[in-house]
Structure to design on (348 residues):
C-alpha cells in the first residue's frame, strides 16, 4: 500500500481519540473550559452514562458571536499565543483541541453569550462540521450539549462500558474538580436526578463532606505546609487520613498541582513512604492534596489529556510532600503502630 496523506475526516477522528477516550473525557474538557471562563456555577447533566447526552452549563464569560465558529477549529485557543507561554501555563486548557475533538465524534450544540452582547448565538456541529448557526436569547455564559457520542466511530462506541460504569467515571471527574475549586458550585445531574452538588463556599472541607460523607470527612487531618526549596516556594494544602482510616488500593489518593487534577507516580510514592510503618501491609492511605508551585517549574504539555505533568525539580516536591505528611502523622499519631519511621527518601 503506497504512503498517502489521510483525509481530514479520518485524521480528525484519530486526533479526537487521544483526547476523548470515554464520556468522562468529554466532561473533563468541558468543565475545564468552564473553569477557565471564570464560572461560579457549573452544571453537568448526563443521560445514559453520557452516551445519549452530556450537557455542561456555566455562567462564565461566554464566547463572542464572531469567535464561535473558530472555537471549533483544531488548535484554536485564547489561552496562549506563543511557544514561551507553554512554560507558564496558568489555565487548565491551552492546546485548542477539546471542542474540535469532541465535535469530531458527536453531535454538538453550543449556546453562548458574553456580558457585552445583547443576544447570544447557537451553533450546531455534527461530525466536526458546522450545520447551523443562529442568534439565540440566553443568559451570560455557555451551554454545550454533546449527543450521541461516537455515533460515527462504531468501533469506539462498542468499547464503552455499562452506563453505570461510565457514570462513575464522570462522577469522579466532577467531584475532583469540585475539590480543586471549592469556590465554584458544581451540580451533577444523572438521568434527571441530582447525584452530587458542592456548596461553593470556598472550603475544601465542605466539599469533602458532600463527596465522602460527614463520617469520613470528620476523621481527615488538615495538611497545611510550605517550604522554600532551591527551585522556589512549594505550598501544600489538603486532607489526609489518619492511620486508622486506610484503603485496599491507591484509588483514594488525589493530587492537584496548581489546581490541575493530575496523576503522578512520584507523588504517590512520596505519600506512601510517609505512611510507611503506620499502615498494615497491603493497605493504602486516603489523601486529597493540592500543591501550589511556580508554573514555570511544571511542564503540563506532556499528553493531550493534560493529566500527566513533569516537575523541573521533582526531588524538591517529593521531599516537601513526604516531610509535611510525615510531620502531621507523627504529631497526631506519635507512636507508629507497625514499627519505626524511616528517614526521608529522595526519588531515585
Amino acid at each position: 500500500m503506497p504512503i498517502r496523506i489521510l483525509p481530514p475526516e479520518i485524521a480528525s477522528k484519530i486526533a479526537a481519540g487521544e483526547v476523548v477516550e470515554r464520556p468522562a473525557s468529554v466532561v473533563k474538557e468541558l468543565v475545564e473550559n468552564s473553569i477557565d471562563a471564570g464560572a461560579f456555577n457549573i452544571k453537568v447533566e448526563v443521560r445514559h452514562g453520557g452516551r445519549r447526552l452530556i450537557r455542561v452549563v456555566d455562567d462564565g464569560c461566554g464566547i463572542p458571536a464572531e469567535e464561535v465558529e473558530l472555537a471549533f477549529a483544531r488548535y484554536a485557543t485564547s489561552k496562549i499565543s506563543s511557544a514561551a507561554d507553554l512554560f507558564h501555563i496558568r489555565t487548565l486548557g491551552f492546546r485548542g483541541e477539546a471542542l474540535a475533538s469532541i465535535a469530531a465524534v458527536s453531535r454538538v450544540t453550543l449556546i453562548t453569550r458574553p456580558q457585552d452582547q445583547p443576544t447570544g448565538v447557537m451553533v450546531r456541529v455534527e461530525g466536526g462540521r458546522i450545520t447551523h448557526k443562529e442568534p439565540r436569547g440566553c443568559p451570560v455564559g455557555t451551554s454545550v450539549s454533546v449527543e450521541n457520542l461516537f455515533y460515527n466511530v462504531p468501533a469506539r462506541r462498542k468499547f464503552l462500558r455499562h452506563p453505570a460504569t461510565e457514570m462513575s467515571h464522570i462522577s469522579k471527574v466532577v467531584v475532583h474538580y469540585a475539590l480543586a475549586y471549592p469556590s465554584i458550585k458544581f451540580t451533577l445531574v444523572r438521568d434527571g436526578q441530582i447525584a452530587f452538588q458542592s456548596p461553593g463556599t470556598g472550603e475544601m472541607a465542605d466539599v469533602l463532606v458532600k463527596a465522602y460523607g460527614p463520617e469520613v470527612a470528620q476523621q481527615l487531618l488538615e495538611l497545611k505546609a510550605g517550604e522554600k526549596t532551591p527551585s522556589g516556594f512549594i505550598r501544600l494544602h489538603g486532607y489526609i487520613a489518619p492511620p486508622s482510616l486506610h484503603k485496599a488500593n491507591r484509588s483514594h489518593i488525589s493530587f492537584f498541582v496548581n489546581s490541575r487534577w493530575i496523576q503522578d507516580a512520584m507523588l504517590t510514592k512520596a505519600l506512601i513512604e510517609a505512611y510507611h510503618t503506620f499502615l498494615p501491609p497491603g493497605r493504602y492511605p486516603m489523601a486529597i492534596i493540592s500543591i501550589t508551585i511556580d508554573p514555570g517549574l511544571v511542564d503540563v504539555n506532556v499528553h493531550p489529556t493534560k493529566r500527566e505533568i513533569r516537575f523541573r525539580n521533582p526531588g524538591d516536591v517529593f521531599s516537601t510532600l513526604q516531610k509535611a505528611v510525615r510531620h502531621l502523622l507523627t504529631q497526631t499519631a506519635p507512636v507508629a503502630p507497625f514499627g519505626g519511621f524511616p528517614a526521608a527518601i529522595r526519588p531515585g
About this structure: The two ends are 46 Å apart (CA to CA).
